[in-house]
Write a structure and sequence with these properties.
It contains 13 helices and twelve strands. It is an alpha/beta fold and about 375 residues long. One of its GO terms (cellular component) is peroxisomal matrix.
Amino acid sequence: MEKYISIKELEEAAASVLPKAARDYYKSGATDEQTLQENKRAFQRLRIRPKCLVGLTDCNLRTTVLGNEVSMPVGISPTAMQRMAHPDGEIANAKAAEKEGVIFTLSTLATSSIEEVAKAAPRAVKWFQLYIYNDREVTRNLVLRAERAGYKAIALTVDTPVFGLRRADVHNNFSLPQHLRLSNFEGFLSTKIHSSGEGSGLNTYVNNLFDKSLTWDEVKWLRSITNLPIIAKGILRGDDAVKAVKAGCSAILVSNHGARQLDGVPASIEALPEVVEAVKHYNVEVYMDGGVSTGTDVFKALTLGAKAVFVGRPALWGLALGGQAGVERMLKIFRTELEYTFNIAGTSSVADITKDMVVHESAYSKL
Ligand code: HOC
């Protein structure tokens, strides 16, 4: 795996080993994929302003996330059905996170169960990503199992009243391959995603089982059934972030769902400052995901107020190429790039980062 030294290289190599339907599903964004491109371009519009001769000490990337110590401010976002990328799927991903000392988030729509992942990676800091199902007993069951299995937080996805329109999945008539199951539902709900042959089975699944009538009251309900911290995932507005906090969330994950829900929404990094500003008087942490593909991207997000940054697709590319070793490689690439960035930008630790270290490119527009 050492031959790969950038996330871009991992992505390109993974594209040639993944089966077409899986590759299309992982890669695609909503409709015209403008936001998918903007997630990356918006990072490129930001400029780092390094500080010189600051008396650097050994680079220390460690930080805490919701009270848990992690080796760097990069964690793994939830992505569904990871056994389409590699036979070891979520197990390999979680074990890599454990080895590298970062957070792993398991998707509700995983192809390995809450308990299997907990057993395979007992020391990893694990979060469970939750969708609220029409059937609240299904939802409650998932939450209580995650709590019992030692997960440290619930990342509640709030941006999926219906499933985004992803043309590649429609063209492919996406179905979950026959040999795979949505493992968290074994024994009490369908474990299959099946297309009738007229479009994506994903849309049918979500539109049949997820509750689009949800309000912030359901977040209060969720707050009442678990002691785990709740992270609101999928927030792009300051006022929604405040509503999430008032409903009992301990953290906000600024996210446009990998640009997979609605095209035309802001890049996650563009939405981050508004959310950070809106909740600055509350005792909550703010994270972001979406388009993060270099150590400098991570640094820019930290500078704009993120406590940590999460990556979804890069983990899938690593997974496809080398299972656990591939995800470890992906994390090592981020670690190396982040260390370079800290050193050359003039910071020895996360605490040294100051707001003035990043500006929008327009600050230099007179040139
Ligand atoms: C089976 C339904 O977050 C995505 C994931 C999964 C969403 C629900 C899949 O594809 O964006």
